[in-house]
Each structure stands twice: as C-alpha cells, then as structure tokens.
Amino acid sequence: MAGDPDAIVIGSGPNGLVAACMLARAGLRVLVCEANPRRWGGALGSEEGTLPGFVHDVGAAFFPFPRISPAFRALDLEKQGVELCFAEFDSCHPAPDGSVACISRDLDLAARHFGDPRDGETFAALARWYRGVEPAVLGILLNTLPTLSPVLKLLPFGIFKLARILLSSGAGLARRLFRGEAARRVMPGLALHVDVGPRDPLGAALGFMLGMTATTGGYSIPRGGAQALADAMVADLRRHGGEIRLASRVERILTEGRRAVGVRLADGTELRAARRAVLADTAAASLLLDLVARDLVPARVVRFMERFPQGWGTFKVDWALSSPVPWSVPEARRAAVVHAGDSLDDLERFTAQVRRGELPDNPYLVIGQQSLFDPTRAPAGKHTLWAYSRVPSHPPGGWQAHADAFADRLDARIEGLAPGFRSTVLARRIVAPPDLEAMDANLVGGDLGGGSNAWHRQLVFRPLFPYFRHRMPVEGLYLCSSYAHPGAGVHGMCGYNAAQIVLRDLG
C-alpha cells in the first residue's frame, strides 16, 4: 500500500475482517494487522490438528448467520466462492435414556422428531412465527443501538410475544412451552454455548435465538473448513484495495492529544492512519489497559477493565476417527451438531459445578460432525469429530494436571451415547483454555463469548456504558470485537456496526 492507510484494523477475526471489508468497500484504504504469523481469521480457522488429511476447525465451526446476518449478506460470501454444506438435522439432543429432540430447517421433520409429538407441533408453530418476524428481530438484536425502526415493525402484538420470551429464564421458557424433558432441554442447552445457565434471569434469549436461527439459516458447514469464510473475506478486502499483514502484533495505540492516529508494532514499526481511524478486534480489557496509555482512559473505566467479567473457559477436543460415531439414536447420525445434556436438572447441575470452579463430572458437550457432510475434512472413509465443554478457566492445580483426565471424561460421555466410539479413535488433540488463549489473545481464559453474556452484560452495558456504540474513550478509536454489542457469535455485526459508526464519524 503506497502511503499511509486511511484506517487500521487490529486483529483479523471475523469482526475485524467484516469491518475492514466494509470500510474498503466505502473507498477507504484499509490495513489489517494480525499477530498470528501463519494465518488470518483468529478463532475462525482450520488446520490439520491430529493426523495428516484430517482438517479440524480451530474454534467456530457451525454458522447460522452466513445467509441471514446483514453483515454477511452485504459481503455475499457464497457468491465469492464459499460453499455451505447442510445436514438433515441441524441440531440433535439425545440422552442416555434414548429420548431425543432434533431441530431441522424442515419444520415438518422437526415436528416429528422433537420429543413428544405435541411438543413438536409447539416448536414448529413457534418457528413458523419466528420466520415471519426474523428480519425485525435480528434488526432489534444485532444492529447498533438504539434500534427503534425494527421494534415498530413488530407492533402491536409481536413485540409483546417476543418480550415475554426474552424476559424469561431458559428453564422457565422451556417449562412453559413444552411438556416433555427431551424438548425442555433443547434451548437451555443451546444457551450453554456461552455462560448462560437454565435458571439465569432473562437467560432465554440466547437459547431461543440459536434454536430459531437453526430453523432459518441452519447450522451451515463451510466446505473445506471454517477457514474458507476468513479467506473469502480477505480476498474481498484485497479486491477493494485493502491489505493484511501477518506477524504484526500491535503493542500500542499511537495518539496525538486525545486522538488515536496509528499503532506501534511489537518490532517497533509505527503505522499511521491518515484518516485517524483505528478499529480494535481485541478484548476490551486488553485494548483499554494494555494498548492505550492509562492516562487517556477514565479512572472508572480502568477500574472496571481491571475486573472485567469474562465468561467461562472452554475445553475442546478434536478426534480423527476410523468411521462415523456409532450413535445409539439414529437421528444423531444425521445431525451437524449433537448436544449432550441429559435434562434440565443435569444442565443446572453442570452450570452450578462450573460456577463453583469445579470440573463437571457429567460435562455438557457441543459435538460437531463436519466430515459427515463435508467429505473434504478427512481421508476417504475416515472422519473428524470436534467437541467442547464449558469449564472454569483456572481449575485448582492448573490445566496441565487435569487436561488428559478431563479429555477422557469427554470420551466417556460420548461413549455413553455411542457405544463403541472409543474403538473408532485414531488420534486425539486436547485444546485446554490456555491453549485457546495462546492461539487467539481475545479468548481470555478460553472464553469464546467476548466476556460474560449474562443479561446485565448486554445491550448498553456491553462492554460498559456509555461506550456501547463502539466509540472508545480515545477519539478515533473503536472497539469492533465480540466484546462490543451485539456480542458472541460469528455474525460479523460487531465489525459491521463499528464500520458504520466510523464512516459516519468520517463524514
């Protein structure tokens, strides 16, 4: 890039890349600085992590938003070569007692496989209602706050139905809607993708949205690996004149007065932003405690960042398999994602154990079967498996003392639902919370959610009031990561919204 860029983006996670693409499409010269020396994408990536020829997603793996998020719709990644694969069942929720509930984009199919037939009809009816209001709901939940126009589209009755759902706890909503345990464990289980437990006040929103978007966007699987999404965004950035630099760790935001004007890299290189816009796809605390001079940040912000509420840690395992997982329930063999949570009581017990700092004895699992629907992920006849559980970030004695035993616990959990699973394992890779943070500094303590996703850490409180509209205390500095509204999930909207604010500020 000849001359200084107009804007600099720190970090090439999905939000950083979306922000960079939107700014480049608007005519700005954009430079993305990525610390990783080998690849871009942050937690959106893929690599051969177990055996040669077995491609594993390093973080995010299943994507409901490529066709429904305003950010990804604007980029139209499929038109740029991303191929999305889908399963018959997007999500399957089996239990050791043989009961099962499944979510599918085919609502008639979902109705027949959602536990009790009456619960199936209830779920399908809810999903049909959601399909009719999804654009307005996504407008309320994903766009830059405040978002009044989408609210008006739900008046007079839709807004009250949505509010009644979103103001519930996950367990409360499940018990109100469904009669059987199989159906009741689905949405509270989905909420445990982050640190939201079944009994948490106002905790129903995340599980509801993950369940509903599974019926619209589906849990898509990018052919070749999640890296395909990051690669497509980088290609779009370059087509519009932007650049990305690997092995370029930013260690300081350069300022003049109280305005950000560029960055200094770890090797001492200083890069200036001609239009004086710096966007950070970073952890909020890292940005305001480490990258910005302390005397430029209000004291109350510093105090809050020093005790910033992170979410739970994540313990992930990748397996190379000789054959598909031999699930006891046939529906699980046709599902993109299998969620292992036995009941509401089981999920509540799991939540309590993690919050006490204990390693759960019957871990809730999110299990991905990418290679069943994308044969490029493994050699012919072989398969990959991907799974994680939520855990305390720092168990007593540290992860080195617990990692192998806890991975064995995950093996046993799957074996209980799929007798014979262990005999299919060719290789196993353990990725404990410290490994995730070493891979991507934004995953503090293995937190995948950009900080806690409790209700009081959302909306105008994300990352803290009054900095919820992406502008940081230093003029010209913007937070565009999942630590900003609307938070966790590969939807790109944190970056998309931040880019709109930047463009507005630049006139």
Task: Describe the 3D structure.
By secondary structure, the protein is an alpha/beta fold. The protein folds into 3 domains: 7-81 and 224-309 and 450-505, FAD/NAD(P)-binding domain; 119-214, no CATH class; 312-448, Guanine Nucleotide Dissociation Inhibitor, domain 2. It has 17 helices and 19 strands. A 7-stranded mixed β-sheet has the order 7-6-15-16-17-14-18. Strands 9-2-1-13-19 form a 5-stranded parallel β-sheet, with helices on one face. A hairpin with a 5-residue loop joins β6 and β7. α1 runs parallel beside α11 (227-239), α7 packs across α10 (204-216) and α12 packs across α13. The chain is globular. The two termini are 23 Å apart. The model has no long low-confidence stretch (mean pLDDT 96).
List how many beta strands DSSP finds. 19
Helix content: 25-40%
Largest sheet: 7 strands, mixed
CATH superfamily of the largest domain: FAD/NAD(P)-binding domain
Give the class-level CATH name of the largest domain: Alpha Beta
Uncertain segments: none
Distance between the termini: 23 Å
What value does the Rg take, in angstroms? 22 Å
CATH topology description of the largest domain: FAD/NAD(P)-binding domain
Overall spatial form: globular
> Helix count, per DSSP?
17
Judged by helices, strands and strand pairing, the structural class is alpha/beta
- Strand-residue fraction? 15-25%
Provide mean pLDDT, rounded: 96
Order of strands across the widest beta sheet? 7-6-15-16-17-14-18
Q: How many structural domains does the protein architecture include?
A: 3
